[in-house]
Design goal:
Blueprint: E1 7-14, E2 17-24, H1 28-58, H2 64-80, H3 85-98, H4 104-115, H5 123-128, H6 135-148, H7 154-162, H8 168-181, H9 183-203, H10 219-230
Antiparallel strand pairs: 1-2
Length: 231
């Protein structure tokens, strides 16, 4: 009797190479199931890479709205994390280039999308965006750092709070981010500032204005920006 009478042959393909292997008949269903699962994962990854390439092309579209939409799409893809390290690197590189776009809305979308990469997010670029010429990009960068909860971003965020020339909306965003990242630091700053305001008001009641103004007075700016995005 043939020693392999209780075995069946499987033909597997890996790239350009073809292998023939033998396995016990009882293992055939399990092996085939794993092969199909592996093929499905490979097909999904190839599809994701194709989408990344399409979005990367759209990032060069003359229409700023198309570029911003592509950046947001890449962010959602990065958030899913459903592709290999090489695919993730492609996505991040595309967004890094777009974070320097000439249009502030596109830059803001790219910075926010970079934050969706989670532990692989290039935090340094998000911190760099805190110095962007556009207040909206700086605001998004601060809020993104809060979502990433990166403690290394505490110092630049504190610097924003102390910058009296900074846009109030950006300072408010930095405050929100610090509350998420390191609430102890924010509590300490608030206590110190409250003491300073108390000393000032003993001599000048007019100096009692709060350090952080609510974002409500700036609703018109947000409304205009939202109108542009809905375009």
């Amino acid at each position: 009797m043939d020693d392999h009478s209780n075995q069946q042959r499987l033909i597997t393909s890996t790239g350009a190479s073809v292998r023939e292997v033998s396995a016990p008949a009882t293992l055939i269903p399990s092996v085939l199931k794993r092969l199909r699962a592996g093929q499905t994962i490979l097909q999904q990854e190839e599809s994701m890479v194709t989408q990344i390439e399409q979005c990367s092309t759209a990032l060069h579209n003359p229409d700023w709205h198309e570029r911003a939409t592509a950046a947001r799409t890449l962010g959602e893809m990065g958030k899913s994390g459903a592709f290999s390290e090489s695919g993730e690197q492609m996505l991040i590189e595309a967004l890094l280039a777009t974070s320097h776009d000439e249009d502030e809305s596109v830059r803001a979308a790219a910075v926010q999308a970079l934050g969706m990469a989670g532990e692989h997010a290039p935090v340094g670029r998000v911190v760099e965006a805190l110095h962007d010429p556009a207040w909206h990009v700086r605001e998004v960068a601060a809020l993104t750092l809060g979502i990433l909860a990166e403690r290394t971003a505490v110092e630049p965020l504190v610097a924003i709070l102390h910058d009296e020339n900074e846009d109030p909306c950006v300072r408010e965003a930095a405050k929100i981010a610090l509350r998420q990242i390191h609430p102890e630091v924010l509590s300490s700053l608030t206590s110190q500032e409250a003491g300073a305001v108390h000393l000032q008001t003993q001599h000048s009641p007019e100096a009692a204005a709060p350090l952080y103004q609510p974002a409500t007075p700036f609703a018109a700016r947000f409304t205009a920006l939202a109108g542009r995005w809905s375009g």
